[in-house]
Amino acid sequence: MKRICVFAGSNPGVNPAFAEMAERLGQELAARDLDLVYGGSNMGLMGRVANTVLTAGGKAIGVMPTGLFRGEIVHTGLTELHEVRTMHERKAKMGDLADGFIALPGGFGTFEEIFEVVSWGQIGIHSKPIGLLNVEGFYTPLMDMVNHAREAGFIPVTQGELILCESDPGVLLDQMRDYTPPAKVNKWSELDVK
């Protein structure tokens, strides 16, 4: 792994632990010589992780649609900034640049981004590791929902292993480094495959 894409809130959230963990993740990325790929903002948890990586001497690569430059306040001190036209292009570019994905706490955009890369992994578009940084249990309800969907027959049992979930950034990055994608299985229960 050379580059990790981090999805994160463009707000800091109300719990100071969220920003502290964004900074810990940034320090861990820089210490491991892993480049950060992210949405390019200077705001919220996105800005915290990028600023920490840069302060520690690491590389931060942003990808942002032109229309969000003002709202998300584009980071002007990045190692690289890729300007794209649409959100679809943003996510595709971040996916192309990254060797793995981590989600810090965030809202609808973060959820959408992480579930898109999980879906892509499930159908074989990529085999990159995907992790949730579970800050003070933030992602526990989401993992409960994934397990509920698996028990309800909507996610094949082994496909739940597509998502790594840890509360320590170093442990999560170690798991991502050692990740082996789950065996490909027939995802469609009504399709008779020999």
From TrEMBL:
Its EC number is 3.2.2.n1. InterPro entries: LOG, LOG_fam. It is an enzyme of class 3 (hydrolase). Gene3D superfamilies: 3.40.50.450. Keywords: Cytokinin biosynthesis, Hydrolase. It comes from the Bacteria. Belongs to the LOG family. This is Cytokinin riboside 5'-monophosphate phosphoribohydrolase. It comes from Brevibacillus brevis.
